[in-house]
Amino acid sequence: MFEQLGNRLSEALRKIKGLSQLSDANMADALGEVRLALLDADVANEVVKDFIEKIRAQSKGTAVLKSLAPGQMAIKIVYDELVSLLGGHRAGINMADKGPTVVLMTGLQGSGKTTTTAKLALHLRKEGFRPMLVSADIYRPAAREQLSVLGAQLEIPVCYPADLNDPVKICKKAMQAMKDEDANVLLVDTAGRLQIDEELMAELEKIKKEISPNEVLFIADAMTGRQAADIALTFHKRVQITGVILTKMDGDARGGAALSIKSVVGAPIKFSGIGEKPEQFEVFHPDRMAQRILGMGDVLSLIEKAQEAANEEEAKKLERKMSAGDFDLNDFMQQLNMVKKMGPLNQLMGMVPGLKIPKDAAIDEGALGRVEAIINSMTKEERKSYTIINGSRKERIAEGSGTDINEVNRLLKQFVQMKKVMKTFKKGGGLPGMPGVGRIGR
Prior knowledge:
By secondary structure, the protein is α/β, with parallel strands linked by helices. It is built from 20 helices and eight strands. The chain has helices spanning about 5-15, 25-40, 45-60, 60-65, 70-85, 115-125, 145-155, 165-180, 200-210, 225-240, 255-265, 285-295, 300-310, 310-325, 330-340, 345-350, 365-375, 380-385, 390-400, 405-430, and strands at about 100-105, 130-135, 160, 185-190, 215-220, 245, 270-275, 280-285. Helix 17 packs across helix 19.
């Protein structure tokens, strides 16, 4: 996500970075490129105009003029304004002070509203809450069944009053059913349309009046660009949106929706969907997103993903083995599995500071799978003691894993290098980074 915008902005800011002094002329050139980059990213015109004017005004400020590195100060201004444009700070779910919390999910059909409802429920359960789901969509075929299936897969209770066919009555029934399920958060999936219409809005207003939600979240498809902000504004005028969830962020290389929606609607982006799997759902951090856009990486999110993927007891056991120099290919496989749990490689790469992936480079997502297949084709003895793996054994392993001897050799070389790294940590302690697998571009 934001690949196209990030590349364009990086190019524009590179011109500013080394400037020993700022002038209207050199700033105008750079800001012109920033403006074009934002417009090409499908950011709303009025948002781009306001963004550029704020940067231009601040770049003439006393703090910049007296700075020892005006170019660096100007980049900081761009970063700060980008954070502000994305919402300023993290905005979580507004939980009720007393009684259950009710979240109304709104949006057009096709934005991923139903799957996002389930994803949010899973996220809230991880946070220690007890969510329950209900579908008030009586129009889309099998909409209620879809939510019930997702709830069953995630082991989250779903209220499904099959005898009711009125959205308002369904929601009222769900409010009552929360006590039986010992739930403290109700997520209401509402009906969407292919386009905004009066019937949809009137129904949402009735539901909102009946259940008095703590949150009214708008689910926006990031692929629709600035149009998502215009649609959100229409919903906001009728049901007062309190937050936004952007879906399909993994497929949007431009970022127009994310950069437009807060300014246009006034409601913050609270979460983003970055894939189809239930766990591919993130809290939206404006500062971290700005860092990614400007090529600064996102170390905090990378650390959080690693902590989520690692079992604390297994991690400690692995650390003891590393410190003792008893690290074998079984342990290597265990670390690979941690990496797999962290998410797609292309998303992880974008979080590494300073790592610029060539535009035409392909991220080899299959590398982890091939390494796993190679290790699985080894005997217990070979995994325990890699030095016994001779030429004939390599041929057998390659054939059994569907790879070739070169890939087997590459894996063993990486493993040997990692064991050498382990020795440097024996005195200092602490787990080194995850193992590198394969090449970024093939």
